[in-house]
Design brief:
Blueprint (H helix, E strand, L loop, with lengths): L2 H5 L8 H9 L5 E10 L2 E10 H5 L7 E5 L4 E5 L6 E3 L3 H5 L13 E3 L2 H10 L11 H32 L9 H9 L5 E4 L7 E6 L4 E6 H4 L5 E4 L6 E6 L6 E14 L2 E14 L6 E16 L2 E11 L6 E5 L10 E2 L4 H5 L9 H7 L7 H7 L6 H6 L3 H8 L13 H5 L3 H9 L4 H12 L6 H11 L3 H8 L4 H14 L20 H25 L7 H4 L4 H36 L10 E2 L2 E4 L4 H11 L7 H5 L4 E7 L8 E6 L2 E6 L8 H29 L1
Parallel strand pairs: 1-6, 7-11, 12-17
Antiparallel strand pairs: 1-2, 2-3, 3-4, 4-5, 7-8, 8-9, 10-11, 12-13, 13-14, 14-15, 15-16, 18-19, 19-20, 20-21, 21-22
Helix pairs in contact: 16-18, 20-22
Length: 700
């Protein structure tokens, strides 16, 4: 519809009859007129809407008008001087939900029968029933138009998506076989008959689908133990028949990368395998593609455009739709057979993604993170080819905070020299091992790779611990010592700090062991610190590595605690002497003995009295003792004259004024206390001024 032509049509004015009608009726918001007009040779229904509340005031202008053609409609807002158009239906513009009769709606009344007839005649194709409602017909028409508009809008977007999907080639020959054989290679099972005392037993291999004999003595099958099928040689997981579920379900994401005309497409497939525990161990297998990500190079920058398989806009059949962040779940096993061909001539030609995947065999890797990270840190290729796969994985996942990611050489990036880099490569270390090697280089210690690996397995990247060890002994010696001590310690020493909330299912035996080691290391560091404080000879190996660490730790802990208690006792004695001196100096001040309104000032005699005041009134004045000693503040007690020994309020006086006065549980002052405090503050000021005056006269 031509808006310019429509806007030239003269704006309607209400007639006298319409004003009288507005004053006569009640409850309706609008009065409408309808007429069929000719615009550029096309018959159009023009509906004018007048607000009844304005007509009552004898204002004749229309609020808005709607033009309806055979295939479209549009509404012009007449309430403002500027031309404004609305494409919404009456439902959205007016919020109408239902109509009463064929000529009258809940919120609108036609101005005359002729208006109703004009609207009815034009909308006859949409009228239904014996007593049709013209507004229902208009609503139906507008809904059809809106649906058509939405489909046209969606088609513009879906056509672009479909054009992009046409670039995607067919899956390579043998891809599905690779998924079954390689990607899901760790999801094969040998379900065996438990036989503790037998030399031979039988089992069923879910891969070769054969019943096989198992030599119990040589194979030693256990639940979830990895091994090989005696028949086909395939890697399998042993599971006793009684432990195998009715339905063994396994799933995995796999990623297929292919070259397209604009760059690379990463296709993510969800693989589902189900093995039923019936007499034949029936297996079902399915592969469904759920996500596609298109990677394009643009001036050395990578643009990623991703899509997912789903219901487009909650409307219509399943199809490729704009991505709703499903890509974030796509840690997947990457199909590596075609990667050299796919990456040839692209920014990723040297990325070594195939090496990264091969390191993890059939385990998923964070493909999406890798493709995003590599353009920023192209030295990932160098790390992968150097065998630093674990470190690469931590960089990809954003955990490599130990690295100078802006560096240009391995030495500057890693922060260690070449000979320490060689050790890191030897053990394929991550950031934890790197942190340990940094500490060793700082201590001028060149460790063995296996010692660093063993230390990290036991204690993680504890560079504080390894720094202490380097000052006294070899890492290997410490590892062996801790292995021995862990076996002789009581069981409670290995209980992890979060065992109370961690479920057994999520906390493996290996993890419990690791945390036991780390708790033991923490105890040893405490032991060494206490020993140094107690002046033990920490160069003596018998002191450093006592034969029974548990007993030595507990003994030194008691000695250290006694030492600290004695230090604290002496400190408190000295503190009491100092605070008594500070309090004695204030005794001669008259205001400190002030009494008024049934209240009195009490000067504390010791630091313990101040602390007891805080405990009784449940506030923090006990922490002010050292500040009183330093002369930074003064603490006074306010008591009732009738109960001078019962804590009431506590006052802090500093820099010539009362800074705070608190009662029980930090409550505010009562009116009497507030008046008393003001009088005290005034008296202290007067005494201070008098003292200064005397000093001035003496000086003169």
């Amino acid at each position: 519809m031509n808006k310019r032509s429509l806007s030239r049509i003269e704006k309607p004015k209400a007639s006298e009859n319409m004003i009288r009608l507005a004053k006569r009726i009640d409850g309706d918001r609008y009065i409408a007129t309808a007429k069929i007009i000719d615009v550029a040779g096309e018959k159009i229904l023009l509906l004018n809407f007048f607000q009844r509340s304005e007509l009552v005031k004898e204002k004749t202008g229309a609020a808005f008008r709607t033009f309806i053609s055979q295939s479209d409609y549009i509404t012009q807002d007449l309430s403002s001087a500027r031309v404004k158009w609305k494409t919404g239906s009456f439902k959205s513009i007016l919020g109408w939900y239902w109509w009463n009769t064929k000529e009258k709606g809940h919120d609108v009344t036609f101005a005359s029968d002729s208006d109703f007839i004009s609207a009815k005649y034009y909308m006859k194709a949409y009228l239904e029933g014996e007593d049709p409602n013209v507004w229902d017909a208009i609503w139906k028409f507008q809904d059809e138009v809106l649906d058509r508009r939405l489909k046209a809008k969606h088609k513009k977007e879906t056509d672009k998506i479909d054009k992009k999907m046409e670039m995607v080639p067919e899956k390579p020959e043998g891809f599905e076989k690779w998924v079954h054989e390689i990607a899901m290679g760790d999801k094969r099972y040998l379900v065996y008959e438990a036989a503790s005392k037998k030399k031979m037993t039988t089992g069923y291999c879910t891969y070769c689908k054969r019943t096989v004999g198992i030599d119990v003595k040589s194979v030693q099958p256990r639940n979830k133990k990895r091994g090989n099928c005696p028949n086909c040689g395939s890697p399998v997981t042993f599971i006793p028949k009684g432990y195998f579920p009715t339905y063994q379900r396994d799933s995995k994401w796999v990623c297929l990368m292919q070259k397209v005309s604009t760059g690379i497409v990463s296709r993510y497939f969800h693989v589902h395998q189900e093995i039923q525990r019936d007499y034949s161990y029936k297996e079902s297998f399915s592969i469904g593609e759920l996500c596609r990500a298109f990677l394009e190079e643009d001036n050395m920058e990578i643009k990623i455009d991703s899509y997912e398989w789903g219901i487009y806009k909650q409307h219509g059949l399943p199809r490729w739709c704009p991505d709703q962040n499903r890509k974030n779940c796509a840690s997947a096993v990457v199909y590596t057979e075609n990667l050299p061909e796919v990456f040839k001539g692209t920014f990723y030609r040297y990325c070594a993604l195939d090496l990264y995947q091969k390191k993890f065999s059939c385990d998923p890797i964070p493909v999406w993170c890798f493709m995003n990270t590599y353009p920023r840190y192209t030295y990932l290729e160098m790390f992968l080819k150097a065998g630093l796969v674990n470190l690469t994985g931590e960089i990809v996942e954003g955990h490599a905070y130990q690295l100078d990611l802006g560096g240009k050489t391995p030495e500057t990036i890693l922060g260690i020299s070449k000979k320490y880099i060689s050790i890191l490569r030897e053990i394929d270390g991550g950031t934890a091992e790197l942190r340990l090697l940094k500490q060793c280089e700082s201590d001028n210690i060149l460790p063995q790779g296996e010692d660093i690996r063993g230390f990290c397995e036991r204690f993680g990247g504890n560079d504080e611990l390894i720094g202490v060890i380097n000052a006294h002994m070899s890492i290997r010696k410490f590892n062996k010592y801790m292995d021995k001590q862990r076996t002789v310690l009581p069981k409670h020493k290995e209980v992890p700090c979060h065992a109370a909330w961690c479920s057994p299912e999520s906390y493996s035996k290996k993890e419990r062991m690791r945390e036991g080691y780390r708790n033991l290391a923490k105890d040893w560091l405490d032991y060494i610190s206490w020993s140094a404080t107690l002046k033990y000879d920490t160069k003596d190996m018998y002191v450093l590595l006592p034969p029974d660490f548990g007993k030595a730790h507990d003994r030194v802990m008691k000695e250290y605690q006694a030492f600290k208690d004695e230090q604290e006792r002496k400190r408190q004695e000295e503190l009491e002497k100092l605070i008594k001196k500070a309090l004695d100096a204030a005794e001669g001040i008259p205001a400190m003995m002030m009494k008024a309104r049934g209240l009195m000032i009490i000067l504390p005699k010791s630091g313990s009295e101040i602390k007891e005041e805080g405990r009784t009134l449940h506030h923090c004045v006990g922490t002010y003792v050292e500040r009183v000693v330093k002369g930074e503040t003064m603490i006074l007690f306010i008591r009732k004259e009738t109960a001078p020994d019962v804590p009431y309020f506590t006052l802090e006086y500093r820099d010539g004024k009362v800074v705070q006065c608190r009662g029980k549980k930090n409550c505010g002052m009562t009116k009497d206390v507030k008046a008393f405090v003001k009088a005290f503050e005034r008296k202290m000021k007067e005494e201070s001024e008098a003292e200064n005056s005397v000093k001035g006269r003496r000086a003169g």
